[in-house]
Amino acid sequence: MRDFFKIMGGYLKPYKVNIVWTFIMNLLSAVLNIFSFALLLPILNILFKVDQTTYSFIPWDTAGMDFKEIAINNGYYYSQQMIDTFSPATAMLIFGGILAFLTLLKTAAYFGGSATLVPITTGVVRDIRNRIYRKILALPLSFFTEEKKGDILTRVTSDVNEVNSSIGNSIDALIKNPILILVYVGTMCYISWQLTIFTFLVVPLLAFGIGAIGKKLKAKSLYVQQKLSEGISQIEETLGGLRIVKAFVAEKKMMDRYLNVNNEYRHADMLVSIRQSAAHPVSEFLGTCMIVLVLWFGGTLIFSGHSPIDASTFIYYLVILYSTLQPLKDISKAGYSIQKGMASMERINRILSAENNIREAASPITITQMEHGIELRNVSFSYNAEKEVLHDVSLSIPKGKTIALVGQSGSGKSTLVDLIPRFHDITKGEILIDGIDIRTLTISSLRSLIGNVNQEAILFNDTVFNNIAFGAQGATRQQVEEAARIANAHEFIMEMEHGYDTSVGDRGCRLSGGQRQRISIARAILKNPPILILDEATSALDTESERLVQDALERLMKSRTTIAIAHRLSTIRNADEICVLHEGEIVERGTHDELLSINGYYRKLHDMQSL
Predict the structure, then answer these.
(1) Which of 64, 243, 273, 374 is deepest in the core (most CB within 10 A)?
(2) CB count, 10 Å around CB of 39?
(3) Fold for domain 2-352?
């Protein structure tokens, strides 16, 4: 329980006012409930002639008398006066009316306590979702290369839903029930401290039974969520590779894998559900045992003639004690739910507590334009401490020039361009823009200078207009259309069903590869960045689409500082400088003609493509 309040305390802090009002309403409800039960005593004792005593009014400030004795005596006095003044039937009706009125106030207070809790339970879950999504946006790309996409999706969806159903609903029990228990126990102590001490000696029996069931629930729940995550990961992989699955006739193999994971999930979930369903019957049985023991002890005191309370007060005590059992049961059920929810919170916290090593400087500099160029000085980088992907790379990129990076797969080209917008941070060396280390710049202003066109055109399930205007806040229809014309995209967009208001589908699935690429180029054109990064933007296209995209890229590259990664050497023939990377180092540099004359790595690549 300590871990619960430690983790959830920060989420509950913004709702302090609601918590106070919930406390007040539930306290009022509990007090009114006590008075409602107390009203039954004079009805039992006087109305049905159980008590033949004639009561006289005792002043409330009488010295030497206990307030409890005065209150009981005067309560019986007023009840007796009412019966003497009216008929017994009328008195019963009046007592019933008072009881109904107190019940109305009690239920109204109970409703008020529940109503003020709703903003807390719904708000906490909303805040958890917001925090997860904000963290996902802030985490570096390296985090997602090490995690399964399906596992992340499970934590964001299923685990949050488990927190919602388990912890969110338990907040009600944890705020309301302790108030009821304190008021009821206080009343029991006031009636008879001897009986209450005996009751407290029996309560550990109830707590032991509940604890024995819930001990392993958290570990089992964590295992259930892991198996669910594996199942979702496999579904996600299957959807992404369905063409390969069918091509290799591997449906049975994939089905067997999924059935195995799904059966393991079902078995683990069944064990958790059985253990959780045992909470109510076990607490019910142990609670009844506690009532039986207290009934035996209280009856023994009364029959001995030395009891501090009479029989009717003992019945009232038992009513209060039985009323205490339901809040205890609710807390025990909440304890089980919390154990399940805490297992999910642990998985969620692996995202929330993940370290973001891309940090801004203490007093970062904002940059709006690039005046001179980009310089890499002795840059080295490794994803882990074992092997460097880039080693001692130095490169100068003057403003307005086009620099091309070529080399075999795995030579470090994409890693190098990812270092400029700080998708990763360098291990050694410096990257400077206009002589300023990029680690001293604000991340948002640095990335605002850069436009990206990647090999895989990433589009969102939205309209064509919104995809083009994605990086330009407040872009007009005219500006979007102009960007599309420059990118050779306007004509095919206008031929679509709703023009610029047509949805492109999931990841742009309703468009061809060339169309997706031209929309991504239009998006970069509209952003109008001074620095442009092209990561094999035409390598996955057919000849006709490549021609249209290449034409659009040439328009985009005018007057911009461009870094282009290319496998097709024909696309970078006119670059101002071509750098050849081999095993993380620049081994050759120069223009196309200069590199051919060297007769080195570049010449080999050129000859293989020519062949």
Answers:
(1) 374
(2) 17
(3) ABC transporter transmembrane region fold (1.20.1560)
